[in-house]
Amino acid sequence: MVLEGLGSSLRETIRKISNSSYVDKQMIDEIIRDIQRALLKADVNVKLVLELTSTLVKRVNEEKPPAGMPQQDFVIKIIYEELLKILGENSTLKLKPQTIMLVGLYGQGKTTSAGKLSRFFHKKGLSVGVIAADIHRPAAYDQLEQIAKSLNIQFYGERNEKNPVKIVKAGLEALKDLKVKIIDTSGRDSLDNELIEEIRDLKKSINPDEVLLVMDATIGQQAGPQASAINEAVGITGVIITKMDGTGKGGGALSAVAAIHSPVYFIGTGEHLEDLEIFDAKKFLSRLLGLGDLETLLETFKETNITEEEAEESMSKLMSGKFNLKDMYDLWEKFAQPGIIKRMFNALPLAKMPGSKQLESVDLDSAQSKLENYRVILDSMTYYELEHPDEINAKRIARVARGSGKSEADIRMLLREFKSMKNNLKALKGNRGFKKMLKNQIRSGNFGLDQLEDVG
Ligand SMILES: Nc1nc2c(ncn2[C@@H]2O[C@H](COP(=O)(O)OP(=O)(O)O)[C@@H](O)[C@H]2O)c(=O)[nH]1
Ligand SMILES: [Mg+2]
User: In Å, what is the CA distance from 113 to each residue of 117, 179, 187, 269, 305?
Assistant: First the structure.
């Protein structure tokens, strides 16, 4: 995963802050140096690093934590907020009729992303067509045509035409009955005036609703100036960062996003057309920092109509390390709606991190029905078993299987997953920062919970 190096350094810093007994000037200097080093190592632009860290120092020195919030958590909160500014506001494409033009250099993933976006809109029930306006690479026409065919959507191209404006105008006319039109354009090996002029002309004459910059996550320091030049020429409205599944440092792409102040709409996470994710800056950053998906967790609590005290109590229990099957069952009863538990576990930190394979491997789509199965299994256990899951031996497993009508493998799976969940929760126990922060947020009921404009 791109940015994994940065993530692990930042998580280390967060841990350092949470574990410190107080925050003094020396501590702050050390944290700032750590953060600078981590960002520079990840290839984030030097100027951006200095700006970010000087804002951090200023805020940490000048601002006072709200009543009840420990200084350590406050510092973590400031780091979170300032990093979030780089990633930009949460924003994504609307599900409405529109023309989208994709721009970017060679090999960044424009044509593939045209296919991924088409699939995305198509799945949401909007008719889609693609237009091949990459006149530079002969193979681009075939590539896009083939993608369109595989998605069963309409394609427009003119194999021998060399004027992209002409092609796109004719294409928009030919596809005018479709809701969404996606235009794939030419790239170059490096940014030059010819490319800038080509996309500027195209933009001017067709006036698309969106101009999306497609950028490879593993791109280096040159990304910032390139993105700025393209932005000046055509006005980028959003970014798709591709190849997030790679192993690059990622700081170059981050710097570019910061330079053009455009939201990241999507990330590409593989070569296949389904490997496209709506980008959620807050969730992404929380996971990167190891803070867990605080927002999802808090929204989840909000939806349940349970009181804040109950929320706190549940969180404390979850993290006490003494969590047993009965607690899981009680929690289940309390939250009543099965979907909620699934989302809670999903939101917990570490679940997405290396080393917690069990949780990671839980297929989210089947998690719901699996949890419903679990409930049936838990119903067939005795109180003693619920409270002493470690003592559920083969004989007991066989009995519970018979009683619940599930297979012994199902029972074993439940016990295995329970154990792995418990271990993950135990790992959180020492994470003072997370726990306190979470409690505070639950208490204040507010963590910048502005509603996402979710297209789903
Ligand atoms: N691993 C991975 N590969 C990608 C992703 N997006 C595009 N690619 C690959 O990157 C290469 C260039 O993509 P392409 O769409 O042709 O780039 P274009 O020149 O900008 O149109 C192709 O081999 C794609 O399969 C992604 O998100 N992950
Ligand atoms: Mg292409």
Answer: 6, 18, 14, 11, 40
Mean pLDDT of 9-17: 91
What separation in Å is there between the alpha carbon of 187 and the centre of ligand 2? 7
329 lines ligand 1 (CB under 6 A): no
Q: What is the pLDDT of residues 294-312, one digit of tens each?
A: 555 555 555 555 555 666 6
Is residue 112 in contact with ligand 1, taking CB distance under 6 Å? yes
In total, how many domains does the chain have?
3
Ligand that lies nearest to the alpha carbon of residue 137, given by its number in the listed order: 2
Looking at the structure, tell me whether residues 235 and 186 fall in a common domain.
Answer: yes
Q: Are residues 17 and 113 in the same domain?
A: no
Please work out whether the CB of residue 110 comes within 6 Å of at least one atom of ligand 1. yes
Residue 108: nearest ligand to its CA?
A: 1
Model pTM score: 0.69
Same domain, yes or no: 131 and 219: yes
Q: Which atom of ligand 1 is nearest to the CA of 106?
A: 19
- Quote the tokens at residue 178: 């479709």
Please give the distance, rounded to the nearest whole angstrom, from the Cα atom of residue 268 to the centre of ligand 1.
9
Least confident of 252-266, 302-316, 417-431: 302-316
Express each pLDDT in 187-238 by its tens digit. 998 889 999 999 999 999 999 999 999 999 999 999 999 999 999 999 999 9
Residue 451: inside a domain, yes or no?
Answer: no
387: CB partners within 8 A, 6+ apart: 324, 325, 326
Residue 188 CA from chain centroid, whole number: 29
CA dist., res. 92 & res. 264, Å (int): 8
Q: Which ligand is nearest to the CA of 107?
A: 1
